[in-house]
Amino acid sequence: MAESKKPTDDKDERTNDNKDKQTNDDDDNDNDESVFSKLQDLMNRFSGLMSSSTSDEPVEDPVLKSFDLKSAAEYMSKCSNIIVMAGAGISTSAGIPDFRSPGTGLYSQLSKYDLPSPEAIFHLEFFRNNPKPFFLLAKELYPQKFTPTPTHFFIRLLNEKNKLLRIFTQNIDSLERIAGIPSEKIVEAHGTFFTSHCLNCRKEYDLEFVKEVIFKDEIPHCTDCDGIVKPDIIFFGESLPDRFQQCVQSDFSKADFLIIIGTSLQVAPFNRLVSFVDKNCPRLLINMEPAGKATSIWDLGSSSLLYDTNKNRRDVFHKSTCDDGVTELAKLLGWEDDFNKLLESEGVSVKNVKENLSTIPNETEENANHLAEQMAAATLNDNKKKE
Ligand code: OAD
Ligand code: ZN
């Protein structure tokens, strides 16, 4: 599949796409007038998409009775091939910062410091020169350091109800595995800590080897060639795992319901998956902020969610925390008792969850702040050494 090659900042990739697109159009059409009319047509379609006040009516019948959680749950109760697409927002209530939330997100904490860019921790070239900031993050996110959230357990419940086709996660914290979702149901699109490889000779290392070294605040080096050993987390510019490509191809055409949860949908190719389901497959976004909307004419009809446009037939945006959203969804599905039982059996009492929810933002912000301070110190020290 042409699109599932590299994780990129979608904004960058779009810019390139746009250039390609315009160049091709220029080749095809020397005639200025036809280019102009094409552009005008695109603009008209774009304003139709972006504005909910236009008089255009949707062409086909809606798939959902109404565009809210209740209707989504009603539809979902009949589905058996549900795909979940998850992001960092499902783990923030475990105290793990996300990347892009203003204030609490790791990137915004890092932006206070004089780093090349906050995303640099996931760039291979930066890592080769200075792997320390990444290993500080790795230590913080080390599997088993955190306990899964109610959202992770809700996804497990989906599986126990024989409804989960697959969870595609962008997260590298392994909380899906720790929550007891079977590994064959999980696709870790941005990789995993479970295996690592030497950047030089590709020798494979296991979790224990890396853990031992990074917990001593040292950098893991290859025992054969002394190259840096990097966990198999996908960095910007690297190919996504083969399993991602395979499962995208086998799953998305089968999906009868899509849940998108806790992600800003800003990173390609992951964010494009929302457009790979059938046009009649409902797409439910549970997130603290809107995501996945068309932001430019180049997004038209392709990868965008249409929940606040008059073209909407099947998209629902439920604005809430992930944990609140899934708790309400469980109630609407009639699974409240099963969900509570599962949480209790895992030591997550409903009372604790409520208490957690009120204290989490502070804890997450503190964690992000602390981590950012250490990463910045590691980077700035390294820069000084080089001077
Ligand atoms: P982001 O930080 O970009 O987005 C997280 C989204 O979750 C935001 O829209 C938040 O508003 C929302 N959110 C945060 N906490 C929430 C909560 N408790 N309940 C509901 N919503 C919440 O994270 P991702 O979209 O996962 O790449 O980022 C994608 C990729 O960018 C990551 O995988 C990472 C990063 O660069 C790699 O690791 C390679
Ligand atoms: Zn090596």
TrEMBL record:
Chain positions covered by the region annotation Disordered: 1-37
Signal peptide: none
Keyword Transcription regulation: no
PANTHER family membership: NAD-DEPENDENT PROTEIN DEACETYLASE SIRTUIN-2 (PTHR11085:SF6), NAD-DEPENDENT PROTEIN DEACYLASE SIRTUIN-5, MITOCHONDRIAL-RELATED (PTHR11085)
GO CC annotation: nucleus
Phylogenetic placement of the source organism: Eukaryota, Metazoa, Spiralia, Gnathifera, Rotifera
GO molecular function, one term: histone deacetylase activity, NAD-dependent
Pfam families membership: SIR2
UniProt EC number: 2.3.1.286
Keywords of the record: Metal-binding, NAD, Transferase, Zinc
Annotated protein name in UniProt: NAD-dependent protein deacetylase
PROSITE patterns from the UniProt entry: SIRTUIN
Cofactors (names): Zn(2+)
SUPFAM superfamilies hit by this protein: DHS-like NAD/FAD-binding domain
Gene3D superfamilies: SIR2/SIRT2 'Small Domain (3.30.1600.10), TPP-binding domain (3.40.50.1220)
Reaction(s) catalysed (UniProt annotation): N(6)-tetradecanoyl-L-lysyl-[protein] + NAD(+) + H2O = 2''-O-tetradecanoyl-ADP-D-ribose + nicotinamide + L-lysyl-[protein]; N(6)-acetyl-L-lysyl-[protein] + NAD(+) + H2O = 2''-O-acetyl-ADP-D-ribose + nicotinamide + L-lysyl-[protein]; N(6)-hexadecanoyl-L-lysyl-[protein] + NAD(+) + H2O = 2''-O-hexadecanoyl-ADP-D-ribose + nicotinamide + L-lysyl-[protein]
Main enzyme class: transferase
Residues binding Zn(2+): 198, 201, 222, 225
Source domain of life: Eukaryota
Chain ranges of the Deacetylase sirtuin-type domain: 62-336
